[in-house]
Amino acid sequence: MGKTFAIVSQKGGSGKTTTALNLGAAFAVRKLRTLLIDLDPQGGSAYGLGIKPGDFSMGANDLLLGKADIRDLLIPSENPYLRFIPAGSFSNVAEVDRFHNLGKRLGVLRRAVLSVRDECDVILFDTPPGENSLAVSALNCADSVVIPLQCEPLALRTLPQILRLIREVKTKVNPALDIEGVLLTMYDVRYGFTEQVSEQVWKNFPRDLVFETIIPRREDFSKAFIQGRPAVFDNPMSPASLAYLQLADEIISGLASSL
Ligand SMILES: Nc1ncnc2c1ncn2[C@@H]1O[C@H](COP(=O)(O)OP(=O)(O)OP(=O)(O)O)[C@@H](O)[C@H]1O
Ligand SMILES: [Mg+2]
């Protein structure tokens, strides 16, 4: 049965979608059957996989509306081990608002995910930033949480808020929820505060709750969005890709030791 990970952060732009895409691609390169589900109406994950709005008519939004079966939503990627479910098509703000409200239908998503877990080794959720019902819905389905933390002071200050949300979900609806780890992203020693932030994280968090892998700041990730191909697929030997492959290996070794 596949292990389900929610990728969440309080602050926007912390690298959730980049992590969802490249960690998903890295699991696929390691031949794990991977399903990436986008719960963010921004639709960044589809963009990063080169899937255009016209390439699909339905997504997670239709699943929550009860209009689609999860199996009808699966979109293949260039790697047979990675499949994708887009957030959906939204033509106005009201539809985006409704999707956020549908996030409260916790049982619908959980049942749908359960019905495909046996066909997957890993399921990843990309989520919108902050404490919102779609992030809660992903946390309710998840076994474990990956928290990307951009190496800058504001991101660090918002970390307690997302930890509080995870704690609340664990207490109220999903007692099995674990934290896989805080993932330092956009690490760049040219910025003084990068090292200050990472030192604070290492000092204040138990060692096993911070990934050893650190994601460097690399232009490759922005270019990959433009090309519609995760960096891990585009150039697997680049330092950017190797970081996500190492992260996948770190998580896989945890999976193996928990068996
Ligand atoms: N390691 C990195 N190095 C350089 N740029 C990065 C890195 N990770 C992400 N970026 C860039 O930073 C921006 C934000 O990244 P991303 O979209 O992954 O964050 P996010 O947390 O999903 O944002 P949102 O909260 O809006 O969903 C993007 O332009 C992305 O290309
Ligand atoms: Mg995103």
Please give a structural write-up.
With 259 residues, the protein is an alpha/beta fold. The protein has a single domain, classed as Rossmann fold, CATH 3.40.50.300. It contains 11 helices and 7 strands. The chain has a 7-stranded mixed β-sheet, sandwiched between helices. It is globular and about 50 Å long. The relative contact order is 0.19. The mean pLDDT is 94. The structure holds adenosine-5'-triphosphate and magnesium ion. Adenosine-5'-triphosphate binds next to α1 and α9.
Strand order of the largest sheet: 3-4-2-5-1-6-7
Tell me the total number of β-strands. Answer: 7
CATH homolog superfamily: P-loop containing nucleotide triphosphate hydrolases
Uncertain runs are none
Helix run count: 11
Compute the number of structural domains: 1
CATH architecture: 3-Layer(aba) Sandwich
Described by strand count, sense and barrel closure, the largest sheet is: 7 strands, mixed
* Mean pLDDT across all amino acids: 94
Helix content: 40-55%
How far apart lie the N and C ends? Answer: 12 Å
CATH topology: Rossmann fold
Estimate the global geometry from the Cα principal axes. globular
* Helix-strand category: alpha/beta
Strand content: 5-15%
Radius of gyration: 17 Å
